[in-house]
Design brief:
The structure holds two protein chains of two kinds. Chain A has one helix and no strands. Chain A has one helix spanning 7-37. Chain A is rod-shaped, with a radius of gyration of 17 Å. In chain A, 26% of the residues are buried. By secondary structure, chain B is mainly alpha-helical. Chain B has seven helices and no strands. In chain B, helix 4 packs antiparallel against helix 6 (161-171). Classes of the chains: A mainly alpha, B mainly alpha. At the A-B interface, helix 1 of A face helix 1, helix 2, helix 3 and helix 7 of B.
Chain lengths: 38, 234
């Protein structure tokens, strides 16, 4: 079956979502560690 | 148990819940990309839906929690409610950033445009900016009482936007599709796609809870530090 050729948009969206979620999780853990140690 | 010990316990629980949710998100990626069929008309870009819609759900859930707790704070004046509300607001901003970046990446190949200034998209951008303003306002105010009261008023005002965003697709002409799940009729998705979507909604909800626990623990620790500094000065 022929599909529209737009897989790059899908890959970009999944990468962007992963970067934002992982970045926010890392920022929470980093800030928490700072306060736990301090 | 002291406030610090309690915050550390919440942080540990938050780390476990977040870890589980992140693993779940990896599972969703694998299921959506490898085991969920490609939609015939939209092509692979339709799979953005499995990330975009659940993240939008988590963002609006976070803003709803902030609004309700802000309202309760104004009635009960319990500091804990303010701290949870502000934690939820930051988590909501993170989720809405995903929603606002994946949306245009889906819109461009399917609608032919990155963005449309219609009611749904504009009100979604507006609530994001409103909560960015909420966080900036909190950062600018040093008196905890004033900070809690001002931000609670802002949180309550933003609360009205959450149901409005949901109904915009019915009340106004928009490119945005109507909800698949939150409607009276049965979902119009094939079974495999529906399972992927529901699993993603569940994972994003757990991720929201994990992030909220971590952010709340951090807020309490920051609050304690602030109290120590005030005590040190006086």
């Amino acid at each position: 079956m022929e599909y529209p050729d737009n897989g790059a948009y899908m890959v970009a969206a999944y990468v962007v979502a992963a970067v934002i979620v992982a970045g926010y999780a890392a920022s929470l853990f980093y800030r928490l560690r700072k306060y736990v140690k301090g | 148990m002291t406030r610090r010990e309690s915050a550390l316990r919440i942080a540990r629980r938050g780390a476990v819940v977040t870890g589980v949710a992140l693993l779940g998100l990896v599972g969703i990626y694998i299921r959506a990309l490898m085991f969920t069929p490609i939609e015939r008309f939209q092509g692979p870009a339709q799979k953005i839906f499995y990330v975009h819609a659940p993240m939008a759900w988590a963002a609006l859930l976070a803003f709803l929690v902030t609004g309700v707790l802000s309202l309760l704070y104004l009635i009960m004046r319990d500091r804990k409610l303010d701290l949870i509300a502000s934690s939820s607001a930051e988590v909501g901003v993170a989720f809405s950033l995903v929603m606002l970046t994946t949306g245009p990446l889906w819109g461009k190949p399917v609608w032919g445009t990155w963005w449309s200034w219609d009611a749904r998209l504009t009100s979604t951008l507006f609530i994001f900016l409103l909560f960015v303003g909420y966080l900036v306002l909190r950062g600018a105010l040093h008196d905890p009482e004033v900070r809690a009261r001002f931000s609670a008023v802002m949180g309550v005002m933003a609360l009205a936007l959450v149901p409005f965003i949901h109904v915009t697709v019915y009340w106004f002409r928009t490119l945005h599709p109507e909800p698949v799940l939150m409607k009276p009729e049965r979902p119009g998705l094939p079974g495999v796609m529906l399972v992927t979507l529901l699993s993603s909604v569940a994972v994003c909800t757990v991720l929201y809870i994990g992030f909220l626990l971590l952010r709340y623990a951090l807020t309490v620790l920051q609050d304690l530090k602030e109290e120590e500094m005030v005590d040190g000065v006086s």
